[in-house]
Amino acid sequence: KKNVVFTVGNFGRAEDAGKMKEQLIREGMKEATVVAYQKGTNLPYTPGLVVQPAKKEAVAVPQPTEGTAPNPVANVSVEGLIFKIQIGSFKNNQQSAAFRKLHAHLKKIMTIEQYKDSKNITIYTAGACSTYPEATQLKEKLVKEGAKDCYIAAFLNGERIKMSEALKLLNTK
Known about the structure:
Elements: H1 14-26, E1 36-38, E2 41-43, E3 81-91, H2 97-109, E4 112-116, E5 121-129, H3 132-144, E6 151-156, E7 159-161, H4 163-172
Antiparallel strand pairs: 1-2, 3-5, 3-6, 4-5, 6-7
């Protein structure tokens, strides 16, 4: 029996990797874990660990071989599946002052959408990416613009789905 391991992200701080882990668990990936690497070597994971992020060129994305499933982080798209970056969510749309400032800044440089979910929570998103790598790049840009707690959300034919479902769809393509 072989294990297939997927990795998401390239973080310089354990705290940031931990936030991604928490998000993945909320999206249904119950076995998500943080693994630390430096210069291609697995390090013991320690909360608070700070490492230099690898250069983009140095991160190898394995390509599927015949008879294996495609890598969900490969540049694959599925009809009707898009990724958006969630930048905020508020019950009764009661935004914090910090979010109002961030929202004002971001809407000058990109389109920000909002919708209400089934629990009457107002959700704010940016972008509409057809591939996961494209969404990852947009998320990185938004973090640099000040949206430190943003994350990738998946939508299939306009309906929000769990990230685990989106990755399964990509994996069957």
